[in-house]
Design brief:
mainly alpha, 0% strand, elongated, disordered C terminus, kinesin binding, KAP3, ARM-type_fold, Kinesin-associated protein 3b
């Protein structure tokens, strides 16, 4: 929101330039007298003078006045005077500052006329008494006259438009004075509002109604003048905030509070300035937190939509910056911004910025379901299909991917021929992101999964075709989600000869980890089928899984998904015998019984419970290991207490303190003291029914870190804009 500095370029008046002027001599004189032009630029100056000498003079017809720029500060009421300001009379104008209030206003207005011409700023700066006198008058008289305060601050604003003068303004502490003035004016505004409210309570009382109308006229006049003052003061502070150190000082003086309070106004030019200032501040965490405490989102919501394009644009950009905060995104939904932003998707002017805010809102699972109650999804689907075979915008497909993760949204997406059109485009153009969206749809149970039966063959065919690895990963992930009882996996694996492919891609280093992980998940899905599990076991996949388990033992997700495959296979007699008698899988599972990862422990316990039920020898080993583990925990606790016994003051002077049995069981997380614990107790303390309800994934399978791997950033993000 910085002023257009092109209008403040250094101008040189060439009164003697005419058709007979010696351009070379004039160019040398200009370079000699103008300190900011280097002598090496002489030729360029001469060339420019020749152009000016030969150009046609514009006609003197009166041209239609162009509308002012939205951010340009306009002259305020009472500023225009008949007398023309003269730079040579600056000292006379300073003298007026020491006279009565009308003379002070007149003098400061004349000085402002000079300051609005950038050519005069350096000369005004060299006047030793001018700025000091203006500062003194502003500090002493700003409460007595809004016009005077506005005029003097406007003078300093003219200087603040150029960075080289910021040190001068800081020296006179004009920024701090402006903040004090703004705070005072905002309090005065609240008092006026209270007074109007009191006088409007009894409209039937004629005398009170007349008093109210009289007060209202005064208030309206006061409001116009005050908003001019606020506008020029905020603008000056915005210019000074180019220096982050100065901005920090403003933040410490509660600038955010003052700005957010000003969002209650109706003056659109003031609102453009205030929102722009907040947008600039919002890129810093502390300022964003201040805005959250001040209910900024609630106050911005009333500005969306609005007729003024600049105000609408800057408001949306501020909301985008704030939407990086989870709590503020939730507030945006609560204050009703979701349908308002959705409506903007049909407006080309605001479509992209609105979509980015909506994308951020769609990241939160609680907010995803709210999109189903708007017309957002039909609009997005139309945008997707309008692209034809062109590449879809990343922000658009990213938004769709997030929404598809919600079941209700996925149902809306698939209405009519939605899924058919998406599959057709994804398979034809081999688009990984489109297939990622389809994969999200496939994860939902019920009728949605049934829709994929007719596309299983197409997905299987993509796996062995040469193409992008990312696309294959999404195809595998989609198939792995299809836990449908009616699906003949054995026929599918044979028809497309997928077993060798799956086995080959279990070898460590055979492909990227993401692809190998999807292969493991796919094996877990097809292993639910008895005949498929036997076929996979005969192919030698179980030893390959154990080898992969050894290689990826530090990756919890790999470990969890491989164990889940074992869990599926021990349900079937043929594969259970292979796992128990021909492999060391039970031994690996015993080692993982006490893993730090809760989900790994859960899968191990359920798998080992099934093994113990069908194999007596392994059952004894499993029970013994569980007892040994709990016993070792108890022994470690006793040893730690004995070590602490060497500290005489820990338990006081009582030598029998450590003999008190409750000391061993008072620590949080320890078991209650029960005598006569046997190994049977520990085996009973674990789930024996193979129930995977504690897991987060669908169909009892372990939840995957799909889309949230710790070594990768979020799928898509946007930087804040200043």
């Amino acid at each position: 929101m910085q002023p257009d500095e092109s209008q403040y370029l250094k101008r040189i008046r060439l009164r003697s330039l005419n058709a007979s002027t010696d351009v070379s001599a004039l160019a040398r004189k200009v370079v000699e007298e103008c300190k900011i032009i280097h002598p090496s630029k002489l030729a360029e100056v001469e060339h420019l003078l020749l152009y000016l000498q030969n150009r046609k003079k514009p006609s003197m017809e009166k041209k239609e006045k162009k509308p002012s720029k939205p951010r340009e500060l306009l002259p305020f009421e009472g500023m225009e005077i008949d007398e023309e300001a003269n730079i040579n009379k600056t000292d006379d104008y300073i003298e007026l500052l020491y006279e009565s209030m009308p003379e002070k206003i007149r003098g400061s207005t004349l000085i402002l006329h000079l300051a609005r011409n950038p050519d005069n700023l350096e000369e005004l700066l060299h006047n030793k008494t001018l700025l000091g006198a203006l500062t003194r008058v502003l500090r002493e008289d700003w409460k007595h006259s809004v016009e005077l305060a506005t005029t003097i601050i406007y003078v300093f604003f003219c200087f603040s438009s150029f960075s080289q003068f910021h040190g001068l303004i800081t020296h006179y502490k004009i920024g701090l004075l402006c903040m004090n003035i703004i705070e005072h004016e905002l309090k005065k505004y609240d008092l006026w509002q209270d007074e109007l409210e009191k006088k409007s309570k009894d409209p039937e009382n004629q005398s009170l109604q007349k008093e109210y109308e009289k007060t209202l006229k005064k208030y309206q006049s006061f409001l116009v003048k005050q908003e001019q003052l606020l506008r020029v003061a905020f603008y000056l502070l915005l210019n000074l905030s180019e220096d982050t150190r100065t901005e920090l000082k403003m933040r410490n003086k509660n600038i955010v509070h003052l700005l957010v309070k000003s969002l209650e106004r109706e003056n659109q030019e003031l609102l453009v300035l205030v929102v722009s200032f907040l947008k600039k501040l919002s890129i810093f965490l502390e300022n964003k937190n201040d805005m959250a405490e001040m209910d900024t989102v609630e106050k911005l919501a009333r500005l969306v939509p609005c007729e003024q394009e600049d105000l609408m644009n800057v408001t949306l950009r501020l909301l985008l910056n704030l939407s990086f905060d989870t709590g503020l995104r939730t507030k945006m939904v609560h204050v009703g911004l979701l349908p308002k932003l959705t409506a903007l998707l049909g407006d080309d002017t605001y479509k992209h910025i609105a979509m980015r805010i909506l994308y951020h809102i769609s990241v939160d699972d609680k907010s995803k379901s709210m999109f189903a109650y708007t017309d957002c999804i039909p609009q997005l689907m139309q945008m997707v299909f309008e692209h034809g075979e062109e590449k879809i915008d990343t922000e658009l497909i990213s938004f769709c991917i997030n929404l598809a993760a919600n079941e209700t949204n996925a149902q809306i997406i698939c209405e009519g021929n939605g899924l058919k059109m998406l599959m057709k485009r994804a398979l034809k153009l081999k688009e990984p992101l489109m297939m990622k969206m389809i994969r999200n749809i496939s994860q939902h149970d019920g009728p949605l999964k049934q829709l994929f039966i007719e596309y299983v063959g197409d997905l299987a065919a993509q796996i062995k075709q040469e193409g992008g690895e990312e696309f294959v990963i999404e195809c595998l992930g989609t198939m792995a989600n299809l836990t449908i009882p009616d699906l003949d996996w054995e026929l599918l694996l044979k028809e497309y000869n997928l077993v060798p492919y799956l086995k080959d891609h279990l070898k460590p280093g055979s492909a990227e980890d993401d692809l190998i992980l999807e292969v493991v998940i796919m094996i877990g899905t097809v292993s639910m089928d008895d005949s498929c599990a036997v076929m996979l076991a005969k192919s030698g996949i179980i030893p390959a899984l154990i080898e992969l388990l050894n290689a990826q033992q530090e990756d919890d997700e790999f470990v969890c998904q491989i164990i889940y495959v074992f869990y599926q296979m021990v349900f079937h007699q043929a594969t259970r015998d292979v796992i128990i008698k021909d492999t060391q899988a039970p031994a690996y599972l015993i080692d993982l019984m006490h893993d730090k990862n809760v989900e790994i422990r859960q899968v191990c316990d359920n798998t080992l419970d099934i093994i113990a039920e069908y194999d007596e020898e392994w059952g004894k080993k499993i029970q013994s290991e569980k007892f040994r583990w709990h016993n070792s925990q108890w022994l470690e606790m006793v040893e730690s207490r004995q070590m602490e016994d060497t500290e005489p003051y820990m338990y006081g002077d009582d030598p029998d303190a450590l003999e008190q049995p409750d000391l061993f069981y008072s620590t949080d997380g320890m078991m209650a003291p029960e005598p006569g614990l046997s190994p049977d107790f520990y085996s009973q303390s674990y789930s024996q029914n193979g129930d995977f309800n504690a897991c987060n994934g669908a169909d009892g399978r372990p939840a995957t870190a799909y889309g949230f791997r710790p070594d990768e950033p979020f799928f898509h993000g946007y930087g804040s804009t200043r």
